[in-house]
């Protein structure tokens, strides 16, 4: 461990496996940025630009919710009632 911000994640992964983690700190950090933090960063950016939940297109929340739930924007997590 190098004293980096995500060293505890590597340690937790190693403890969960009851063995030494095979992931380097860089690999864990890249994985978290892409798979854990990426969707929330995307959601925040869309909110900042007024694109999420817009009265002009409320269905974009369905697509984003689907992405956050299962990573697939083409498979809605839920469908709102017709207007």
From TrEMBL:
Highest rank taxon of the organism: Bacteria
Alphabetical list of InterPro entries matching this protein: NAD(P)-bd_dom_sf
Protein name in the entry: Uncharacterized protein
Organism: Actinopolymorpha cephalotaxi
């Amino acid at each position: 461990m190098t004293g980096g911000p995500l060293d505890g994640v590597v340690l937790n992964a190693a403890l969960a496996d009851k063995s030494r983690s095979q992931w380097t700190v860089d690999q864990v950090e890249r994985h978290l940025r892409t798979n854990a933090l990426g969707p929330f960063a995307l959601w925040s950016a869309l909110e900042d630009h007024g694109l999420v939940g817009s009265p002009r297109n409320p269905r974009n929340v369905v697509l984003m919710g689907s992405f956050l739930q299962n990573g697939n924007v083409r498979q809605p997590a839920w469908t709102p009632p017709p207007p």
